[in-house]
Amino acid sequence: MKADGIHLAGIAAYLPERYPTQRAVDEGAYGAEDREESGIESVPVAGDTPGPDLAVRAAGTALARSGHEPGDFGALLHSSVHFQGPDGWSAQHYVLRHTLDRPVTAVEVRQGCLGMLSALELAAGRLMATPDGPPAVLLTSGDNFSTPLVDRWRASKLFLLGDGGAAAVVSRRGGFARVLAVGSVSTPSMEELHRGGETLFPPGPTVGRTLNLEERREFWRQEWARGVPPPMGNFGDTVAAAAHRTLAEAGVTMADISRVCHIGFSQFPLQASFLDPLEIDEKRGIWEFTRTTGHMGAADPVAGLEHLWRTGQVDTGDLVMVIGASPGMEAGCAVVEITASRYAEGDDDHA
Length: 351
Description:
Oligomer: single chain
Order of helices and strands: EEHHEHEHEHEEEHHEHHHEE
Number of domains: 3
Domain Beta-ketoacyl-[acyl-carrier-protein] synthase III N-terminal: 108-175
Helix content: 25-40%
Number of helices: 10
CATH architecture of the largest domain: 3-Layer(aba) Sandwich
GO molecular function, one term: 3-oxoacyl-[acyl-carrier-protein] synthase activity
Structural class: alpha/beta
Domain Beta-ketoacyl-[acyl-carrier-protein] synthase III C-terminal: 247-338
Shape: globular
CATH class of the largest domain: Alpha Beta
Protein name: 3-oxoacyl-ACP synthase
Number of strands: 11
InterPro entries: ACP_syn_III_C, ACP_syn_III_N, Thiolase-like
């Protein structure tokens, strides 16, 4: 979707203290060979801080940076991957209460790790469709994976799970970056890959089943060995399709892109699923950042862009691709143009 007059007015990430992966190896929680293969040096671990509170902390900084007042907002879109709190409770309205505290709609975007990019697409569409309405939408995300239902060190060979929050203010009024285009591409034939042999009912968490994506991958390896072909499709092809379509809608090419903000996969999966399909190297991506954070669910793309912005690695006129993916299988992409120099204030304690 080509965006018209849509900006990022404020952006922020809240990262708890990083937990070195070597420490996890020394404590027996993580294998030394797995650590070496992943290339991940640390992940943020939030202890007993709830995921929604991580989102609230990031939102406070993003709002302060944006120059917007609570009355400017027409909606809040909250994303998460892991459990947020009590069953049947509304995390998005908790975040709304502790940020804008306004009687506007608050919606949870359950789009896995693609949540914040999907929320950006929804926010841009809303703002363009209602030119006389409130000029801003607040996007938030927050996850804490420190629960008995997930082992952050062994849930998947593709990534290590990190805790964190992120927030962005999407605005018609201006900001530090202009959104040129945002959109997504799905390959629904691949949904079985993330389901494996698990039944749909009763849902796994209701009977105490933990999140173990490696077991689901092993299910398909065994099926293939028995002559049953796995679901057809290619992760990297879907990522590339989303990128190429968004570039075309933005009216630019990959050669025009200065940096790429990707999700926090481990080194080889990142190369195979994102870097190679986009034909870029680690330096053009943000591996130097994500190797210290791991995969923070839906917060990854916004946290990566905030990192480039805060550290001055992008400046006025630079084009940045923000790209992610989720089970489904779906990939999303945004192309933004940096329109203002980096933040001058010293509020980067947790970035």
